[in-house]
């Protein structure tokens, strides 16, 4: 893994070019930091995935980095580059300063967003899903915590740690059978082992 194409200017795969600042998010096997990319004096997000804690999920990690490198849509988070630092995989991404919709609701909107704001966020998220599905990807973890906003109000869908490509075989309509995602947001067919599911599972989570 290294540089990923499609950016107007490249970000290096040299860890010394990045100054990690505060932690802004974490999960079972990853921590996200706000960081400075020193050559550009640019604020970025660095997702550090612990390869030891990921264990047998390395294929998921590889798939996430590959998916993010191929993305080219204004409503989907794209990776600038990724590289291994000791026992961690660093994925360099744009920094979404306002955080997730879930975070915003917890700290500033305990009663939920205004209806107009909800409509705007959902419209932009749906654009992201339409794009991903046309590219053959199922996100599989669509939820408020994975819908991010920047200071300009731009909405981006993030976190492909559990995404899947349904075009990696000859049958473009092939269903998935693995159990991944966040249970309370998951479609019934995803919760039923062996039943199989496709991109419609994302629409259930979206709704």
Give an overview in words.
The chain has about 210 residues and is α+β, with helices and mostly antiparallel strands. It folds into two domains: about 15-95, Phosphorylase Kinase, domain 1, CATH 3.30.200; about 100-205, Orthogonal Bundle (Transferase(Phosphotransferase), domain 1), CATH 1.10.510.10. The chain contains six helices and ten strands. The chain has helices spanning about 50-55, 60-70, 100-105, 115-135, 190, 200-205, and strands at about 20-25, 30-35, 40-50, 80-85, 90-95, 100, 135-140, 145-150, 155, 165. Strands 1-2-3-5-4 form a five-stranded antiparallel β-sheet. A three-stranded antiparallel β-sheet has the order 6-8-9. Strands 7-10 form a two-stranded antiparallel ribbon. The longest helix is centred in the middle third of the chain and has 20 residues, at about 115-135. It is globular, with a radius of gyration of 17 Å. It starts with 17 loop residues before the first strand and ends with a helix. Mean pLDDT is about 75; it is low at about 5 and about 160-180.
Topology (SSEs and partners):
Elements: E1 18-26, E2 30-37, E3 42-50, H1 51-54, H2 58-70, E4 81-85, E5 88-94, E6 99-100, H3 101-107, H4 115-134, E7 137-138, E8 147-149, E9 155-157, E10 164-165, H5 188-191, H6 200-206
């Amino acid at each position: 893994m290294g540089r990923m194409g499609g950016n107007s200017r490249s970000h290096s795969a040299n860890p010394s070019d990045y100054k990690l600042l505060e932690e802004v998010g974490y999960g079972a096997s990853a921590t996200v930091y706000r960081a400075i990319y020193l050559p550009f004096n640019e604020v970025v997000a660095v997702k550090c995935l612990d390869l030891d804690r990921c264990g047998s999920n390395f294929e998921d990690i590889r798939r996430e980095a590959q998916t993010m490198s191929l993305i080219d849509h204004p409503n989907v988070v794209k990776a600038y580059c990724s590289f291994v630092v000791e026992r961690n995989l660093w994925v360099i991404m744009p920094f979404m300063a306002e955080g997730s919709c879930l975070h915003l609701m917890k700290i500033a909107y305990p009663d939920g967003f205004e209806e107009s704001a909800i409509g705007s966020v959902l419209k932009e998220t749906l654009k992201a899903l339409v794009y991903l599905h046309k590219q053959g990807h199922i996100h599989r973890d669509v939820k408020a915590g994975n819908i991010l906003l920047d200071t300009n109000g731009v909405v981006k869908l993030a976190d492909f740690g559990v995404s899947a490509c349904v075009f990696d075989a000859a049958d473009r309509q092939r269903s998935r059978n693995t159990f991944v995602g966040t249970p309370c947001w998951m479609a019934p067919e995803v919760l039923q082992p062996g039943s199989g599911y496709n991109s419609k599972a994302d629409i259930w989570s979206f709704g």
